[in-house]
């Protein structure tokens, strides 16, 4: 019995030490100010399927229930999520001056030509996602797994008491039982006062199902980035190179010392309503910051410098690309709230800072002006 107790204490100590070592290492990285250190908020470590056993919470097998049926709605019944037409033509994708490690695969700066396409003006909101779930009965992957990842600061003390694990390389992320799009910080939270905020805790698979239901699809990485750049060439942000032009906040990120204190100078510690801040020149809101956005492509860092047309990424892979950074990004830790920035997660991953928006080749019929006006006349 005594031996078992000693062993248990030894295991606990080992875990604590490894977390402390990580924290110290990260602080040292901060102090060095080396822009090429691998700093991260850790949200790329939240995979459910990688070999990181600390991140593996439950060994639950997802039941395959098939794709949700797409209900054909009458015009005007569906929310009026506006889409913007992005004109066909070339743009410069990526950067040759990435401030983050080469492992992020932001370079090289390359010419990409795209056909025209439509993209949602905002991230998909809780209100929109609720309509989708009401009509299709989709159970998200976070709900099937029974948990999702939330930053420690946002979890109530009551909920925190029941959590015994953390993510080894990012111990500020905790798996919260029953956290899902409906209960973003666990069962003692809800979305009633955030219906106009972006939906979170949705996996790539959930996002894809939503887009299909809405007669849309996820944007490719190139489409997302062209849209984010708003017609500007090789700029850091969707509006230029200054993070706060004219001292105005243009995005929801983290001010203060991550992950300890958030001074909320941009007005929000967590998600912001999807129409917050000035849009870019394409009239798109929150392309950077607020929540990360899933895109279609499988992850790769192997990009040709040669010009390409309508790229859609590798044919297969293990992780999907996400773009734009989130309200948890801080320049010293995760300088990924830039147009060229990118990160990755497995397609079944979900977290409290990860959402999406949709794109489409053609405007869905229910959004076409003549259809909408016909409906109004009825
Ligand atoms: Ca903020
Ligand atoms: Ca965003």
Tell me what the structure shows:
- The chain is an alpha+beta fold and 378 residues long.
- Helix content is 21%, strand content 14%.
- The strands form 5 sheets. The chain has a 4-stranded mixed beta sheet with strand order 12-11-9-13. Strands 1-4-14 form a 3-stranded antiparallel beta sheet, covered by helices on one side.
- Strand 7 and strand 8 form a beta hairpin.
- The structure holds calcium ion (2 copies).
Average pLDDT rating: 84
- Determine Rg (CA atoms, Å): 21 Å
Q: Helix tally?
A: 7
Distance between the termini: 78 Å
Main β-sheet description: 4 strands, mixed
What sequence of helices (H) and strands (E) makes up the elements? HEEEEHHEHEHHEEEEEEEEH
Number of strands: 14
* Unreliable parts: 5-37, 50-76
- If strands are numbered along the chain, what order do they take across the biggest sheet? 12-11-9-13
Q: How would you classify the quaternary structure?
A: single chain
Q: SS-based structural class?
A: alpha+beta
Give a list of the ligands. calcium ion
């Amino acid at each position: 019995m005594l031996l078992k107790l000693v062993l248990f204490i030894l295991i606990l100590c080992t875990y604590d030490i490894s977390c402390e070592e990580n924290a110290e290492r990260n602080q040292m990285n901060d102090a060095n100010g080396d822009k090429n250190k691998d700093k991260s908020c850790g949200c790329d470590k939240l995979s459910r399927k990688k070999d990181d056993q600390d991140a593996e919470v439950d060994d639950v097998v997802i039941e395959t229930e098939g794709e949700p049926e797409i209900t054909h709605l009458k015009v005007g019944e569906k929310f009026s999520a506006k889409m913007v037409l992005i004109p066909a033509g070339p743009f410069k994708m990526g950067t040759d001056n990435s401030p983050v490690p080469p492992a992020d695969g932001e370079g090289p700066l390359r010419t990409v030509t795209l056909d025209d396409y439509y993209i949602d003006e905002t991230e998909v909101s809780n209100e929109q996602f609720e309509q989708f779930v009401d009509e299709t009965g989709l159970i998200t992957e976070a709900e099937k797994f029974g948990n999702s990842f939330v930053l420690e600061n946002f979890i109530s003390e009551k909920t925190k008491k029941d959590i015994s694990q953390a993510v080894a390389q990012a111990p500020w992320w905790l798996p919260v039982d029953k956290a899902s799009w409906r209960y973003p910080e666990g069962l003692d939270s809800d979305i009633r006062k955030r219906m106009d905020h972006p939906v979170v805790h949705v996996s790539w698979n959930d996002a894809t199902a939503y887009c299909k239901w809405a007669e849309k699809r996820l944007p490719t990485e190139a489409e997302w980035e062209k849209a984010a750049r708003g017609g500007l060439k090789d700029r850091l942000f969707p509006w230029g190179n200054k993070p706060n032009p004219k001292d105005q906040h243009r995005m929801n990120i983290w001010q203060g010392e991550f992950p300890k204190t958030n001074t909320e100078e941009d007005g929000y510690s967590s998600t912001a309503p999807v129409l917050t801040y000035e849009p870019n020149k394409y009239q798109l809101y929150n392309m950077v910051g607020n929540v990360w956005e899933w895109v279609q492509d499988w992850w790769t860092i192997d990009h040709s410098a040669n010009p390409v047309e309508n790229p859609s990424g590798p044919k297969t892979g293990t992780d999907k690309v996400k773009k734009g950074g989130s309200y948890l990004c801080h320049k010293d830790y995760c300088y990924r709230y830039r147009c060229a920035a990118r990160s990755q997660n497995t397609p079944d991953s979900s977290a409290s800072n990860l959402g999406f928006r949709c794109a489409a080749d053609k405007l869905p019929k229910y959004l076409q002006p003549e259809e909408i006006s016909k409906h109004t006349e009825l």
